[in-house]
Amino acid sequence: MFCRDCGEKLALRFLENEGLVPYCGKCGKFKFPFFPVAVSMVVTNRREDKVLLAKHVGDDDYKLIAGYVKKGESAERSIPRELKEETQLAAVKWRYLSSRYHEAKDILMLGFLVTAEEGDVKPNEEIDTAAWCTPEEARAIIRKNSTAEYFLNLALNELGRKK
Known about the structure:
3 helices; single chain; 3-stranded antiparallel β-sheet
């Protein structure tokens, strides 16, 4: 571990109420671990009877639309930007569902339920194919035991309570 400010090798030091925390002797400061944050979106149409799933290039599994929160950007601002970049669809409204640490990529995923204008999906270079599915189809084809499945089930259970 190295200091992201000066490059000095970090040492673990005890910090009261925190335990062992990386410390930079050169900067004279504790350096809490840093990892990226991303949004994961369960995208539905306005009637909430369809869910948008996508296969990314080089991947056989269907997943949710997701993307990193850029430095200086809020999670809420990243939602319409990422959806538009990846699909050319416009986000109409969104609400927070839950968060989950995604070990495979060492990121914190923030799950949102997003309503989008239904229309032709025009995937960017990251996405091989995308499709509007019924909730039942989405549950059947989403990658099993994944963060995407976790957020999908949360969203669909939430939508099921409204009906």
